[in-house]
């Protein structure tokens, strides 16, 4: 059925989009992907529905009409032919005019979606800067553009109707005119002529029904094309044909070999010739000024992007040679922008592992220093989390995101600036607990704070996408100028000693 087909299309689109990497997301916008999987699918659904209703009915009465009409009066069929040709060419013209317009309408819906989304999620900022009027104008423009275009197309469609009527009535007049002459010449009976007229009407009516379909067809054609665009997108990051397996148990040693990386579509590399080894049981920290490429380095490990040159090795295997799911199974990742899902605290923690025991959850929140604020709430683990975690503070969100990664108990942890919203006391308590509990795991920490990395086993100092220092705190204080600068700007001489 049409609804069933729509469901299948939506499912296919969603599945495809889930396999998209960041590169493909940048190609389509999120707003456009939403339109494509809702509005566009509905358009297609409508046409499928109409086709199913008419595709059998209309041809039957059409063909039946033709056969009977020719039977009645073989020398008048050309009138019908003329009418049908006129009808078809009209439909063709409408099709050609409206197709580009429909394409525009769908992208205007994208635009409207985008503006609405931005407005709804950026409400606070808009208010803070008193930009309501500007935003309203922006919305009105998007809205008006869409309306104008829709009206234009609607007018064309509507004007089709009287033209059709004209055509039908013209046909009757034509038949009666020609028929009257033939009756006068006694080559046809009045009754036959009237019957012929009826059949002619039936034929044209069948075509009219089809043309109704053609009102919706161009739009569905555009929508179908847009859906196909999504489904046909070539993935940049794919699983290998013959994936390798990690050793069991895995040696969670991560090695970057001469890695250079450039964002898709960017002009310059953001990472240049990066090499380091992060060993199991050790903490490897990345430090550097903002924008120096710390997040870019760690995002290469779960293959959110692929390296441009060089290679990333886990357990001695190039991560491009294993299945993405196998790789990500090993990684507990805490993104720089904490992200929680609507539900409860517990459902968010179980996101990592549905079957995690109560003790595991308890332990994870203890390590993440989140237990205090969780159990301050009367509901505890059952406390509601609003969409994207908007009802917890920034630091609480970070700690929950961290606890979620800890529930997974993976051999590799990646914390991308996960300590930035924590006060120093919580920060150090958390690191201490982390050190004790993560045991043999490989821990990667991204941060801007020297205090956070001081006790790390290995510190990698990044500057403009290059490694400018590697070693322990003491060594770097002696040898690395960039590190000294960062350290001196944050800590007093005594603390550094
Ligand atoms: N998705 C992206 N597309 C294109 N360029 C990007 C993208 N993300 C980051 N960049 C660029 O890459 C560079 C490094 O960014 P990155 O996020 O790795 O910095 P960072 O060290 O994590 O900074 P911060 O400490 O502020 O988080 C920046 O100059 C940024 O402009
Ligand atoms: Mg970052």
What does this structure look like?
This protein is an alpha/beta fold and 497 residues long. It has two domains: 2-232, ABC transporter type 1, transmembrane domain (ABC transporter transmembrane region fold), CATH 1.20.1560; 254-496, Rossmann fold. It is built from 19 helices and twelve strands. The protein has helices spanning 2-18, 22-27, 30-37, 39-72, 77-121, 123-128, 132-184, 190-232, 294-299, 324-329, 345-349, 358-367, 371-376, 394-408, 424-438, 450-453, 473-479, 481-490, 493-496, and strands at 254-261, 271-278, 283-287, 309-314, 317-318, 331-334, 343-344, 384-385, 412-416, 442-447, 458-463, 466-471. The strands form three sheets. A six-stranded mixed sheet has the order 6-9-10-3-11-12. The protein has a four-stranded antiparallel sheet with strand order 2-1-4-5, with no helix packed on it. Helix 15 links the parallel strand 9 and strand 10. It is elongated. The mean pLDDT is 85. The structure holds adenosine-5'-triphosphate (ATP) and magnesium ion. Magnesium ion binds next to helix 9.
Q: Short description, anyone?
A:
The chain is an alpha/beta fold and 497 residues long.
Taken as a percent bin, the fraction of beta residues is: 5-15%
Range of helix content: 55-70%
Tally of distinct domains: 2
The CATH homologous superfamily of the largest domain is called P-loop containing nucleotide triphosphate hydrolases
CATH class label of the largest domain = Alpha Beta
Largest beta-sheet characterization: 6 strands, mixed
Shape: elongated
Spans of at least 5 consecutive residues with low confidence: none
The average pLDDT is 85
The radius of gyration over CA amounts to 34 Å
**Can you list the ligands bound to this structure?**
adenosine-5'-triphosphate, magnesium ion
